[in-house]
Design a protein that fits this description.
15 strands, signal, 2 domains, Peripla_BP_I, seven-stranded mixed beta sheet, amino-acid transport, 400 residues, five-stranded parallel beta sheet, Rossmann fold, ABC transporter substrate-binding protein
Length: 400
Amino acid sequence: MKKCMTLIAAAALLGSTALAQADDTKVGVLMDITGPIASFIPPLQNAANLAVKQVNDQGGLLDGKAVAIYGDTTGSAQGAVDAAQKLANVENVPIVMGALMSGTTIAAAEAVFIPSGIVQISPTATSPAMTDMKDNDLVYRIVPSDNFQGQVLAQMVLDQGIEKVAVTYVNNDYGVGIGQTFMDAYRAAGGEIVAEVKHEEKKNSYRSELATLAKGGADHLVVIAYAGDSGGKIVKQSIEGGLFSNFVGTDGLRDELLIKDVGAEALKTSFFSSPTSPADNPAQKTLHDAFNAEYGEGADKAFVDQTYDATFLTLLAIEKAGSADRGAMAAALRDVASSPGEKVGPGEWAKAKALLKEGKDIDYDGAGGSYNFDANGDVSGLIGKFVVDGDGYKQIAIFE
């Protein structure tokens, strides 16, 4: 199935340009289709495609259709730059949804999108480094910074009565950002970190790092890394070596691939933090019903809400701007995402298009909540606490 989805993605990469007609408008979709978070991607592609389909089914974008042009970062900084260059210089997109990983988002922004004057909105990138980027108001995200997630994770751990832990985090923008924030917050609240290891990606064995981490005598290991790369290997090798059996992870580890690799039983005492959506949000139900009607299942997968919302916002920004002028995208994005304005939700493209045509303001409230960008393109948000439930994850608490 995963191979099939990768082939579909590749076909989209190769064939999407040919589908564009003279009056159609391209929108860039930059995703980490291959690489360490590949297992997350199929439902997120569906989320982006659903937003585009709804737009085209309800009057189209500007005077034609919306056409999603995909780029694959391959989960690497160089791959992100290469894909971004194609979107900017070959496809000439006016705005980009993505990327997903913090490192690929930052690499694409700094090397390509900021110099090209292209607005970029990530649904999932959380690195604190994005807050202070010199981005000319071009880089946005709709999930809270890891400065917040790290503090919440420290609270989760202490609330569980865990007063000492060992910590390992991957040496990239994502891991370093949230790792340092977690450790500072945990120590400040009275927790003890008995061992700390910053590890590298793409190694076959982490047994030497685990030996160091186990010497401190902690019962819980905090792992801040991706399940499709170092994070999954560290958990599996910890269990195989009898070194740790209780794990605490962040959104990169909250991946169904981890459950497939080590089994639900091995994770029954573990828990995970991840950006989430408001409880009892009617906009979320609207999206999930439409998503499952279109694809059969998958609306509950991680970051479906945020990916759909980010894609819908890029399309609203183009419609608000009234053209594909890159220079108009930032102001238009801020306008459609924040109050004042008449409320618009997931799937309500015809309503939004009519209001904008009448010169009225709109305010998009999505499946993932409302998005009021601050001066840095950041938003406040929610962090959920998740535990393993069968072959997936169940949310058991929300921190605001």
